[in-house]
Amino acid sequence: MNHYIAISRRLRQTPFTAGVEAAGVKAYTVYNRMLLPAVFDTMEEDYRHLKTHVQVWDVAVERQVELNGPDATRLMQMLTPRDLSQIKADQCFYVPITDENGGMLNDPVALQLSDTRWWISIADSDLLFWIKGLAQGAGLDVAVFEPDVSPLAVQGPKAETLMARLFGEEVRKIGFFRYRRMAFGDTSFIVARSGYSRQGGFEIYVEDSAHGMPLWDALFEAGADLDVRAGCPNLIERIEGGLLSYGNDMTLENTPLECGLGKFMGKNADHDFVGRTALETEKTNGIARQIRPIAVSGAALAPARAPWPLFVGEQPVGQITSAVWSPDFQTNVAIGMVDAGHWDAGTQLHVKTPDGLRAATIQAQFWL
Amino acid sequence: MNHYIAISRRLRQTPFTAGVEAAGVKAYTVYNRMLLPAVFDTMEEDYRHLKTHVQVWDVAVERQVELNGPDATRLMQMLTPRDLSQIKADQCFYVPITDENGGMLNDPVALQLSDTRWWISIADSDLLFWIKGLAQGAGLDVAVFEPDVSPLAVQGPKAETLMARLFGEEVRKIGFFRYRRMAFGDTSFIVARSGYSRQGGFEIYVEDSAHGMPLWDALFEAGADLDVRAGCPNLIERIEGGLLSYGNDMTLENTPLECGLGKFMGKNADHDFVGRTALETEKTNGIARQIRPIAVSGAALAPARAPWPLFVGEQPVGQITSAVWSPDFQTNVAIGMVDAGHWDAGTQLHVKTPDGLRAATIQAQFWL
Q1: Interface touch A4/B3, C-beta < 8 Å
Q2: A135 interfacial to chain B (CB closer than 8 Å)
Q3: Could you tell me the domains of chain B?
Q4: What is the pTM of this model?
């Protein structure tokens, strides 16, 4: 990291920024025009601690989009190939969102709060604008806005222990990608077993920014003996675990099928959604490229700042979109988009990195 | 600036990033999910140089949205209160974009390239998503996408001299907020007399990223004796000059009337646009708050990172949204949103800054 960040109001602070800065955040990234912590100690120390103890993450950047009104569910179903009639009342539903060409606009998690009310917890794009535009253009009877709701994540092997101290033993009963409303002080929050790591944990949907720092402080107080620390999504851990990042590993140029999200499209979708024709055509014609785990040989590489092109000889066959050195697996771990015919496990390619050409091998699975 | 920026593909590089980094950029901000240089030498040195010589600015973050198809002009007119029938063939048209509540979605500049083709040069929000959604919802016959077009700005008192060396004397004939297509090597670019400073200059719309660095290098070669340097929009100069910043001085919570953009709404608009009803109601009922230049007393303050609340006694009456110390005017210059009844020039308020309470005075005009 060689450059400072110039912060202004436009890069929004969160309800937890005071806590994050008191904890000594060293680097930020920007996500949904909001500050997202990126490093506290070093990326490697943060990684080791996340895999061993418990961390509290300011993920308020997962901005919420609320759909509220008689047409909310109809609009929600227009947005995604996923069949929403299958959603359970307490379920966090991962919903790829596609444009008219089948391109990925976002890959958020949706919660149905009632027949007429949804929250969508978004990745890094102004999905609010797409949904507002669509509703306006189609003349739907629904309000679409960003409510004052900021997720705070508790992640790591000791996350459940810490959460039980704060919210009671009942928190242990929450299933994966399920949620419950739990009491906190004189209010209550939706608590979900979810989060952007493979170490287990929860996300708390903090309604009303004023509750942010009291919750932050309560978690640190309750977890002092667990070595609880401020943390953040960790680049090494998320690549090892195969957690895709919108804007890094997929963009509007990619379809859900290319991103390995075909399972979230009904085999014979009987609901209409934006992009359906394009995606059905792609299914028929075959998928041109797909996301794959890739190992890159040689010494430790600095994190990828821009795509690294993949080659077979002189022929371009895709690109690596996220890459970093893994201390635990002693290789450079990477995620890339690889052309058809070259994506089978074991395939040997070359990748052009800032440190020169390296051997790259398609993996059968992520480093789990 | 106390924090580093963690860069990944998600924070996109531009066609000029190689030049920017070779020139020694020290700090970035993020704008439209893309890297925008913020400081090269120091903010004060950059400011002095901008007001004296000529700078080349990577403003590729002004991403383009192209509307292309039979319904392009109809869609464009739906987006804005401004009457587009008044646009001249060579005009850069500043167009506030409003949602159904009259809230500002963006404040871009539009160019009409033909009857069926527009470019919109956007401020910091995914306006692409709003326009795509609206077109999709309304079933319009138009393609909406981000073309490979990246603006490069040449700003400062010597900008015209430098531009004439590269593009010929004809460049001097371009009027303010007008454009011409000018030859460069074996291609041509749209060149406009515009830019985000009050020092005069041009913006070059670079079509095809591959032309980016050759143009950058040609400008530095032609301007060596003019002390041409890499620069960027300068916080001090833009506040002095009253150049508003979307995301800082106005957000979706504000209307064009609050932002002093009423002049861009026809007195009796006879075209329909999204938000018309809300804005006509606001006009009838009166405007609740407006943007004002504000001087803040006392010693130099660090740039505002978040809004600073304004008070009369204990009563909140608005907020300062951008602020910094001005070396030329020897005061803290600021932009704020001030409630009705408190916005007249000369009004004395107080503002809560990170350095404590300061006197704040509404100015009659910006520091021009």
Answers
A1: yes
A2: yes
A3: 17-62+148-239 (3.30.1360.120), 64-145 (3.30.70.1400), 288-368 (2.40.30.110)
A4: 0.97
